[in-house]
Amino acid sequence: MVIACPNYRIYLLVDRPPFTVLICPQCSHHFQMSPSVDIIGSQDRTPTFAPEAFEVASRELAMSVIMTEEPGTTTAERWNFETRFSIDDIGRHLNLDARHCVLDFGCGIGRVARPLIERYGCRVVGVDTSESMRNLATDYVRSDRFEVWSPEELAEQVRRGFQADFCICLWVIQHAFDASEVIASIASALRADGLVYAMNQSERAVPTSHGWHNDGIDVIELLRRSFSEVSCHSLPLHIATARMSAITKIQVLRNPPKSCATP
To answer: Which of 168, 204, 212, 257 is the 20 to 30 A CA-CA neighbour of 42?
Structure first.
């Protein structure tokens, strides 16, 4: 539901039992309310997709949106422990080195791109729908091995022949308005036989004008239908809460051979 923030347009609804906390992604203005209180917002009760949930005004706000505070853990803890695990795990499954180009679909401000470049020397192309995240990413990563595109720019580069060796996509498809479209974009930008490293929660959380919405789409199965699954695991308990470990699926998938058009 849209709530009138004093400075911006929308709040994110975050469940922190026994309260629901409403946080403006732009200025961090927030308040909490009992779940029994009805949220009064727009007269239009039909939820609409709200991509502005991912538009931010600073690096600090970006971090809180990218790695949301969850029961039993904080944004800073998740940023630290999950990022270190991801860099190790991605490198182990993709066998990265300086020869490779990695597509970071849903790169945010470059949380994973920067340490990937530092550790493995690979080239990273970040893609994000959020203009503010893309702008912050250039400053955060600060590497000539990194560039960042919008999804539209990615599509144009694919038409010109761009193909990544690998793709990483962390905490992204679960939030996408059209999960199938995102998966198709990844497949088109990845070389035949290239690997995808995808991390998602088991239920969808699409940002809408009424808060986060689960539309029932099974992202894990969608990925399995589009790619060949190599392995599936989760966040280990030594770096994540039991709840986060239980709801997280990390898939390594292989892109099938490109179909050839008949002459």
So the answer is: 204
Q: Which residue has the higher pLDDT, 3 or 245?
A: 245
Q: Is the pLDDT of residue 32 over 90?
A: no
Pull the structure tokens for residue 204. 């969808």
Residue 137 has pLDDT above 50, yes or no: yes
Confidence of residue 15 (pLDDT cuts 50, 70, 90): very low
Task: Compute the CA torsion angle 165, 138, 176, 197 (nearest 10 deg).
Answer: 30
CA–CA gap between residue 4 and residue 2 (Å, rounded): 7
pLDDT at 45: 57
Report helix, strand or coil for 126.
strand
DSSP for 154-191 reads: HHHHHHTT--EEEEEEES-GGG-SSHHHHHHHHHHHEE
Q: How would you class 146 by CB atoms within 10 Å of its CB: exposed for 0-12, middle for 13-18, buried for 19 or more?
A: buried
| Cβ-Cβ contacts under 8 Å for 75 (sequence gap 6 or more) | 63, 64, 67, 68, 69
What average pLDDT does the chain have? 85
Residue 44 makes CB contacts below 8 A (sequence gap 6+) with: 209
| Structural domains in the chain, sorted by start | 75-204+214-254 (3.40.50.150)
Q: Are 195 and 166 in contact (CB under 8 A)?
A: yes
